[in-house]
Amino acid sequence: MVSTTPPDPKATAMTLLMDTPTTALTTPPADVTEWVNAWSEILTPTDIVWCDGSARERHELIELMQSTGTIEALNPDLRPYSFVARSEPTDVARVESRTFVCSESEDDAGPTNNWMAPDAMRAELLELSQGAMAGRTMYVVPFSMGPIDSPMARYGVQITDSPYVVVSLHLMVRVSNRILNAISGGASWVKCFHTVGAPLAEGEKDVAWPCNDTKYISHFPESREIWSFGSAYGGNALLPKKAFALRIASVMARDEGWLAEHMLLVRITSPEGKRYHMVAAFPSACGKTNFAMMQPSLPGWTVETLGDDISWLAVDDSGNLRAINPEAGFFGVAPGTSASTNPVAMDTLWGNTIFTNVAVTEDGDVWWEGMSKPAPTGLTNWRGEAHNPESGDPAAHPNARFTVGIEQCPSLAEDWDNPEGVVIDAIIFGGRRSDTVPLVMEARDWDHGVYLGATVASEKTAAAEGTVGELRRDPFAMLPFAGYHMGDYMAHWLSIGETLRAGGKMPRIFQVNWFQKDDNGRFIWPGFGDNIRVVEWMVKRIEGHVGVNDTALGLTPHTADIDIDAADIDQDTLAGLLSVNPVKAAADLDASSEFLESFGSKLPEGIRRQLDQARAKLQA
Ligand code: GTP
Ligand code: SPV
Ligand code: MN
To answer: Has residue 161 got a pLDDT over 80?
Structure first.
């Protein structure tokens, strides 16, 4: 390994920051510079670049990545200024088995997180990181989660040796050197260290997707730090997203009295012109982006996009629950996205988009399973080889993704980056369940709603490593993302309910399941734009226009109250989707109960009470 002396970071900063259109920053904050210098001594990068978030910087990195083969330009006539990246086949999704919450006490991480003592983890990663950036540039990326200067925004700085990560961050979050000024002014910031862990010897030729077989995605909740080693993919490497905005932010939220959630955020407008704001938590690859961009099939309804993956929620001075989207772009699932399922996403992806692990057509455009039928001939698959349709392998990786700025989304709400956020009328929980969970239910009250969130289970998807289709408990769709003990997390949700109750402004809580299947394995509910029919029912409930059936699981609709006019489904089928099978429900309750009881004394009394009530109701 070759060790080089990086240039004085301040001098580097001076020259690069001259270009910035955002601020005339003179000197980076001393604490950031100190942190950068300390890491650079360990990592021994060739040079250090302080990023400003400008279009020019992005352009230069895109040029660089084309020259190294990390990205390839698509046909500019079909997909202007858009690129495809192909990852190493070993680096295609979040690696939950290598994701750690390193709280001081193991008990704080809880049974659902991998834990290692912070000192031991630091020692291990420091050893791995010696010279890890040799031959590479270290980029210093200052970013804001949430509108800069919003009371709900939080700042961070990511160091990384991956230009792919820097460009992705440009598209997905607010990267700007204005944040360094805010930090100089005393704002706190989260330290995000990332390396692909692939040092280059002198003269060694780089590969298109450098990464390391050894991976660690480590979180230090007490010191608000993230150390990520070995992967360049998604949530493993784009640290502001899952690592910061969920794992570290959930700890900040616990300490400061708010919520950091794996939730989309939308504005629904009824034909009467009345607006409702809703958040929905579904596990990875279970429909958040699609819901957030819904084109309602019921006339007169509109859905405006505010966020598609993460929401930060807080009770304001008037007692309302408010939400912002801390991100500024999408890292969305490509397979299944089409002009019929999600035309808004297809429009959003017109250009300026980085696609990762998709297939490429003969004429240089993108393709993935579900985009069109039949598949075009002459595809290049996600590994860069000629696609063989006979092989049975997909042309695009099942977790292929698009990275694009939110401003390109045609359904984006005009005020999406209002620093005040929006007042939430309804919270929705959901999962991917072939059976057992009805199409929609309403919670009896807040605590029952928290119980519905706590008992979400979902069939696994390709968004993380593991067996696709296997059912797992995924409370609040936060199993891989809660930065502290899941039992304490549930207690925190119950306590937010108490605060809301004091102000008398309780959002409704619902549970949905778009994914029930028939005996042939086909989805029964039409889904996508037809999901508005379920949302319309929620609005009727909010307005007090319709009654419910009080079932053992929760409040379900009268079949006649869900408008299926002109939808591809009949009343009997709908009745089936809304029904509760007591035998399956009892088995599910047993599984939930076993999972929740594993929290021992950390399981809040409020959740245990709900479990007892559910059991009593099922036996009645
Ligand atoms: P992450 O980005 O991983 O958090 O995923 P997500 O929750 O945003 O999921 P997304 O909306 O990208 O959908 C994932 C997959 O589910 C895609 O293949 C969609 O086509 C499919 N999907 C989304 N909504 C529906 C629906 O209502 N019905 C059915 N059958 N499939 C859906
Ligand atoms: C998810 O898995 O929920 C995602 C993709 O949104 S990633 O950013 O990789 O976590
Ligand atoms: Mn997600």
So the answer is: yes
Residues in Cβ contact with 483 at an 8 Å cutoff, skipping those fewer than 6 apart = 101, 113, 219, 221, 246, 247, 248, 249, 250, 251
Residue having the nearest C-alpha atom to atom 21 of ligand 1? 287
pLDDT tens by residue, 303-330: 999 999 999 999 999 999 999 999 999 9
User: Can the peptide bond before residue 389 be classed as cis, meaning omega within 30 degrees of 0?
Assistant: no
Nearest-atom number in ligand 1 for the CA of 338 is 20
pLDDT digits 0-9 by tens, 397-415: 999 999 999 999 999 999 9
* Residue % of the chain over a pLDDT of 70: 96
Nearest to 105 by CA among 118, 94, 91, 96: 118
- Beta-carbon-side half-sphere exposure of residue 52 (alpha carbons within 13 Å): 22
User: Cβ contacts of residue 363 below 8 Å, gap of 6+?
Assistant: 75, 78
Instruction: Taking residues 532-536, report their average pLDDT.
Output: 98
Q: Tell me whether residue 51 is one of the annotated catalytic residues.
A: no
Nearest Cα neighbor of 509 from 454, 566, 577 is: 454
Q: What residues contact 458, with CB distance under 8 A and at least 6 apart?
A: 282, 283, 286, 431, 432, 433, 471, 472, 474, 477
DSSP 416: T
For every residue of 216-231, DSSP letters joined together read EEEEETTTTEEEEES-
Residues 6+ apart with CB under 8 A from 329: 171, 172, 173, 403, 404, 405, 406
d(CA 119, CA 274): 54
Return d(Cα 177, Cα 169) in angstroms, integer: 13
Adjacent-strand bridge partners of 159: 140, 193
State residue 22's pLDDT score. 58
Q: What percent of the chain has pLDDT over 90?
A: 95
Name the residue of 172, 279, 286, 310 to mutate for ligand 1: max ligand atoms within 8 A of Cβ: 286
The mean pLDDT of the chain is 95
Residues within a 6 A CB radius of ligand 1:
282, 284-290, 308-309, 332-333, 335-337, 341, 463, 514-515, 523, 527-528, 531
Q: What angle do CA 379, 289, 445 make, to 5 degrees?
A: 150
pLDDT in tens, 430-446: 999 999 999 999 999 99
pTM comes to 0.95
- Ligand 2 site residues (CB inside 6 A) read 94, 234-235, 241-242, 284, 309, 331, 463
Residues 71 and 64: their CA atoms lie apart, in Å, by: 9
CA distance 419 to 145: 11
Burial bucket for residue 40 (CB in 10 Å: 0-12, 13-18, 19+): buried
User: At which residue do the structure tokens 């950390």 appear?
Assistant: 602
The 3-state secondary structure of 559-602, one letter per residue: HHHCCCCCCCCCHHHHHHHHCCCHHHHHHHHHHHHHHHHCCHHH
- From the candidates 102, 192, 211, 286, give the one annotated as an active-site residue: 286
The answer to whether residues 110 and 487 touch, using CB atoms and an 8 Å cutoff, is yes
394 Cα: distance to centroid of ligand 3 (angstroms): 22
Q: What's at 337, amino acid-wise?
A: T
| CA-nearest residue, atom 29 of ligand 1 | 527
User: Which of 290, 297, 458, 534 to mutate to test ligand 1, by most ligand atoms within 8 A of the CB atom?
Assistant: 290
- 206 Cβ partners below 8 Å, 6+ apart? 68, 135, 200
